[in-house]
């Protein structure tokens, strides 16, 4: 049961599908496109009890859950919880040449500061731009004030290991670390994409800031399609490198981690973000109870075409284990 869009008949549809304003609701349904209203009413509300959101809306809590499950996560160097703690920031960072500072309750990559090294008393970002110690403290203060957090709530700042991505992934991401997003329903992987940075996105793997969305085949772990600002591309706009046909490292382990994240949170519908470190391998970065819908553009496939078969499977076989769920997803959604 493949939903490949390689045929001559299907190709023109998917090249234009992002231009939603010229599509009627009936046409979108025929394409299997899931919009925000459908996502919320049909998949989020029935499957994600509100009480479980606290497990994933706070990255510190999610990391603790993951570690209890034996999953690898980026090492936490420190946590800044109050303005008073910022006085010790320089001391905390003095032994670290590279690190990441992020809000515990952030979303969409907002507030993430990546530092690659130090030079002449300045912190160096992947782009080569410099941050003074005062600027880093100011950034942390903004995190504490809730500038980047969900609902503007006061937050805490995490200081973490700076992931060194596997070389094959670094090559297709401009001055930034790419990550992998998987969307899950009832523990079945339904769709995956690689998010790769561009010059425009300033080293961040955020599609809304100009990063690339690169669809990944669930069965093989190879990239099958790429988009930039919703338009299909085959090469990186900055490096010129080919984006299609790239094999994700440790793909089976990545799928296992994603399914485990569903089991440990109890959420029925979720997104799992991972990175592949050159030395450590796959790392769980975060879990999202409200995964976005741009993954459909990256794959050229409407989510409904993946979610409906999983709904039926889960109803008929509610007790399937991790291996069975992965096998079903590979068999049903694989493109090659």
TrEMBL record:
<protein>
    <submittedName>
        <fullName>Alpha-L-glutamate ligase-like protein</fullName>
    </submittedName>
</protein>
<dbReference type="GO" id="GO:0018169">
    <property type="term" value="F:ribosomal S6-glutamic acid ligase activity"/>
</dbReference>
<feature type="domain" description="ATP-grasp">
    <location>
        <begin position="63"/>
        <end position="327"/>
    </location>
</feature>
<dbReference type="InterPro" id="IPR011758">
    <property type="entry name" value="RimK-rel_E_lig"/>
</dbReference>
<dbReference type="GO" id="GO:0046872">
    <property type="term" value="F:metal ion binding"/>
</dbReference>
<dbReference type="GO" id="GO:0005524">
    <property type="term" value="F:ATP binding"/>
</dbReference>
<dbReference type="GO" id="GO:0005737">
    <property type="term" value="C:cytoplasm"/>
</dbReference>
<dbReference type="InterPro" id="IPR039523">
    <property type="entry name" value="RimK-rel_E_lig_ATP-grasp"/>
</dbReference>
<keyword id="KW-0067">ATP-binding</keyword>
<dbReference type="GO" id="GO:0009432">
    <property type="term" value="P:SOS response"/>
</dbReference>
<dbReference type="InterPro" id="IPR011761">
    <property type="entry name" value="ATP-grasp"/>
</dbReference>
<keyword id="KW-0436">Ligase</keyword>
<keyword id="KW-0547">Nucleotide-binding</keyword>
<dbReference type="Pfam" id="PF14397">
    <property type="entry name" value="ATPgrasp_ST"/>
</dbReference>
């Amino acid at each position: 049961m493949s939903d490949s869009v390689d045929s001559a008949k299907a190709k023109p549809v998917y090249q234009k599908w992002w231009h939603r304003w010229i599509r009627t609701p009936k046409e979108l349904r025929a394409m299997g496109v899931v919009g925000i209203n459908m996502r919320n009413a049909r998949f989020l509300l029935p499957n994600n009890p509100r009480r479980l959101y606290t497990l994933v809306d706070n990255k510190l809590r999610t990391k603790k859950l993951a570690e209890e499950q034996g999953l690898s996560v980026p090492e936490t160097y420190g946590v800044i919880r109050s303005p008073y703690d910022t006085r010790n920031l320089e001391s905390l960072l003095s032994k670290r040449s590279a690190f990441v500072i992020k809000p515990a309750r952030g979303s969409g990559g907002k507030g993430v500061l990546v530092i690659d090294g130090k030079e002449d008393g300045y912190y160096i970002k992947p782009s080569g731009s410099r941050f003074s110690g005062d600027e880093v403290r100011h950034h942390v203060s903004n995190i504490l004030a809730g500038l980047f957090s969900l609902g503007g709530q006061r937050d805490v700042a995490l200081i973490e290991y700076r992931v060194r991505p596997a070389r094959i992934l670094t090559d297709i991401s401009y001055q930034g670390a790419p990550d992998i997003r998987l969307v899950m329903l009832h523990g079945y992987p339904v769709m995956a994409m690689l998010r790769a940075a561009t010059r425009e996105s300033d080293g961040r793997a955020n599609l809304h800031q100009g990063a690339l969305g690169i669809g990944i085949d669930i069965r093989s772990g190879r990239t099958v399609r790429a988009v930039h600002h919703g338009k299909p591309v085959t090469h990186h706009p900055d490096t010129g490198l080919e984006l299609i046909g790239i094999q994700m490292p440790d793909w089976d382990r990545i799928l296992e981690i994603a399914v485990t994240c569903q089991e440990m949170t109890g959420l029925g519908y979720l997104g799992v973000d991972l990175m592949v470190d050159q030395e450590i391998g796959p790392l769980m970065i975060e879990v999202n109870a409200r995964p976005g819908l741009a993954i459909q553009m990256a794959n050229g496939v409407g989510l409904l075409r993946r979610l409906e078969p999983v709904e039926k499977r889960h109803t008929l076989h509610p007790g399937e284990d991790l291996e069975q769920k992965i096998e079903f997803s590979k068999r049903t959604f694989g493109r090659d």
